[in-house]
Amino acid sequence: MKARVHVMLKEGVLDPQGEAIRHALGAMGFEGVEGVRQGKVIELDLAPGTTAARVGEMCEMLLANTVIESYRIEFV
Question: In 3-state terms, what secondary structure has residue 10?
């Protein structure tokens, strides 16, 4: 079983990497991009029976800085 954890900065938190991407896209001629939020995806190979609650514990303790980041768990 696999889980994907999508981690993004919370709304209102400055995203300098996203801003650098937005600026670079504009410099390359890609107009109309008004904002970019950059995040990360973590893919976990899990033992059968691992619960969403357990993956949530992993996120809370290590995978996401919940002060400034939010996360979403997807089982694939």
Answer: coil
For 56-66, write each residue's pLDDT tens digit. 999 999 999 99
CATH number belonging to the domain at 2-75, selected among 1.10.10.10, 2.60.120.200, 3.30.1280.10, 1.10.3720.10? 3.30.1280.10
* Sole residue written with tokens 């029976």: 49
In the chain, where are the structural domains located? 2-75
Q: If residue 74 lies in a helix (H) or strand (E), which one and from where to where?
A: strand 69-75
Nearest-angstrom CA–CA distance, 21 and 70: 20
Question: Which pTM was predicted?
Answer: 0.88
Distance CA 16, CA 72 (A): 22
